[in-house]
Request: fold
Amino acid sequence: MVRNRIFINGKDYTQWASGLNELTESISKKDDGTIEIGQSSQIILTGLGYTYWKEIFLDDSCTSIDREYEVRIKVESCNQNLDFIIKSQGVSIDEVNCKVKMNFNTKNSKDEQISILQKTYFWDEDYGFIQEYKAKGRIERMLYVKELTFISKILIYFYVVALIPIITAIEIVLNIIDLIIDFINGIGGNLSRPGTDFEKFKEQIESDLIGAGEYTTVYYFKDIFEFWAKQAGLTFRSSILQQEPYSNAVLWGQQIKKGIELKNCDKVTFDKDNAPNYNCIELLNLLSPVFNADWEIIGNELIFERKDYFQTIRKTLFNLDEEVRAGRMTDGWDYSFDNQNQYAQLKADFSFDAVDTQGNRNVNDYYSNVIDWNAGLIHKNRKGRYTPRIEFGACRFTDDSAKNNVNSWMWHNARGQFIFDIDLDYSHSLVLTNDTAQLPKIIIVDQTSSRYFKGCLFRFAVKKQVSPPTFQSDIFGDSVGIWNYNMPMWLNNKIYPGNNLVDKFHYIENPDLKGNRFVEIKSLTWKPQDFCAAVEFVREHKLNMNITSKRGDATIGSLTIEYGACQINITELKFKCNGVS
Reply:
């Protein structure tokens, strides 16, 4: 019998190895979406192999934990070299019987790419994302305000009635003092003005009273993925995030402290303290339920698309009917009928934010939806709910349907009119309960709308007016009107049909549209005519393959290559007909 050979760090250990001819290699998908490739059988070393590797891993266990060693197994039947990595986590040592048992991980170019994408927070300044996109003007500033409470309004009234006359008198006195100081300095004196600190004090009072005066720095998802894909030697591709409106989607986060004060906007273009602590892979997984999407590395591309897209680009491993007729399916199998995706209802919501409750309390109707997919209980097998796990918070804005005219007036008129000296209009800004939020938010930026303050550019969410200003006769008349904001991120497809998350992404889960046959094969074993060519194909395409048959095309959950038996075991085959366009 032809024997496979094993080389570790270039040294031939074949004579001390057992289990080489039973070598198996498994390919499966992990919970974080990455593909795991490993040797699922165990290689045992004795003799000098045991002695050497015992010294490496056990006798020097403190330092060996971070080491890895290259393993090459030469598969004689295919004249192929399989490259693996051995780490201490894959080693067990039997001192009584003098054996070292090893399980390997595949040495895969994608491992390095995944490692880069998982390496650190997307904004880590050591890697250049912030520097590059700050230079491009792509780190945006977005204003926010805090909801005004009953106490806030009382304080504003007290400020107008009681404090403004006092402040005005103080300002008159300070202006006189400034004139005297100017005269003294003009004849050789060197006195400082006392009014500067008072002006700062007044600005702070006014900002606190109207719940404004800060901004948040936000980051385009498109930029994040394009930058990190490039770092990993990949190209990012997504018809979702690289085309409008979602190419203008930004990541908003403010978990730690209040935002940057407006007076510092010309100095601070990146709020490191509040930057969301996600790496690229975490962000991809966080976004996937939002857009009913998936991501894969295929060739030199990092692809993020609605999950049914990947079915259209999978490579065909074989045709099941043809292989059955040729006698290359070694065992029989059972078809089972899985109705887990026969949902009776869609129930979609943005997550509850325990810190920023503005979205939860006031505009939850926009960011949630319930759709009955089994009206009249016609389909007995439909049950349960399709509930995407969307871990982002809903967004409230100053002039949405939940607006309060008094609050809106304060935010719109904070520009020197009547009361305040702050030269900035806060209308159309994000509304928070306080200064922070537990959850991140997704905001679609309106590239046609901006304001400047102290030379700083501020962006706002996309919006559409639904009710004109009323211009009531009282002082707090509505001069802005009512607007819808951030509509492409809504789940409610009744208020804003067509351009929302349900109508663009989640509708494909409706069993009426899906055309799913719900046929599954738990496991089958294939003995290919050309085993070596099949192995090469599988190792190249991983799980980006399907199996065709008269039942439709089947996706593959996982597979195991058995090198000794020259066969491939395939599990979790799911057949779907092509019912979704």
About this structure: The first strand starts at residue 5 and ends at 8. The two ends are 52 Å apart (CA to CA). The CA atoms of residues 228 and 569 lie 35 Å apart.
